[in-house]
Design brief:
The protein has 154 residues and is of the alpha/beta class. It has 2 domains: 55 residues, 2,3-Dihydroxybiphenyl 1,2-Dioxygenase, domain 1 (Roll); 69 residues, Roll (2,3-Dihydroxybiphenyl 1,2-Dioxygenase, domain 1). Helices cover 17% and strands 31% of the residues. The chain has 2 helices and 8 strands; from the N terminus they run βαββββαβββ. Helix 1 runs antiparallel to helix 2. The longest helix has 14 residues. The chain is globular.
């Protein structure tokens, strides 16, 4: 019997999210992340949108959710997006504030005490927890919790 091998070039493909209102979520994800609609369907009971950038599919939205995101249940903890600079994080924060998004912490915070990486932690219109972070530039702010990763408990 031969030993099983694991894939060698494994990457995350795209993330699929259930939403309650496709139009509302499309507006949010396009404004915050600059996503382009790559495909969409509007058949009753089967509404969806494929979102990406520069031809690369990143997020799919499926209008089949009811109620809000339940962080206490098994499943997605949060979805994180890396940007190149802390200035881009702050720019996204301004857009989110204009949209009335909820934030877990006030402003940019590091991932942990003394960490250079960090960002903002917020929710989409359905309460799905999201993060936009930069690999450097967040070390000037104190971590909200010194004993655990900021991104793990919000």
């Amino acid at each position: 019997m031969s030993a099983a091998t694991v894939p060698t070039a494994l990457r995350t493909g795209h993330i699929g999210l259930n939403v309650t209102d496709l139009d509302r979520s499309l507006d949010f994800y396009r404004k915050v992340f600059g996503f382009e609609v790559q495909a969409e369907g509007r058949e009753p009971g089967r509404a969806y949108a494929f979102l990406g950038r520069e031809g690369h599919l990143m997020v799919t939205l499926w209008q089949q959710g009811e109620g809000g995101y339940a962080p206490g249940l098994p499943g997605l903890h949060h979805l994180s997006f890396q940007v190149e600079s802390i200035e881009e994080v702050r720019s996204a924060e301004a857009v989110l504030r204009d949209l009335g998004a909820g934030f877990a912490y006030d402003g940019v915070v590091p991932h942990g005490e003394g960490a250079s990486s960090g960002g903002i932690f917020f929710t989409d219109p359905d309460g799905i927890r999201l993060e936009i972070y930069a690999p450097t530039g967040a070390d000037s702010a104190p971590a909200p919790v010194s004993e655990a990763p900021t991104c793990g408990f919000f």
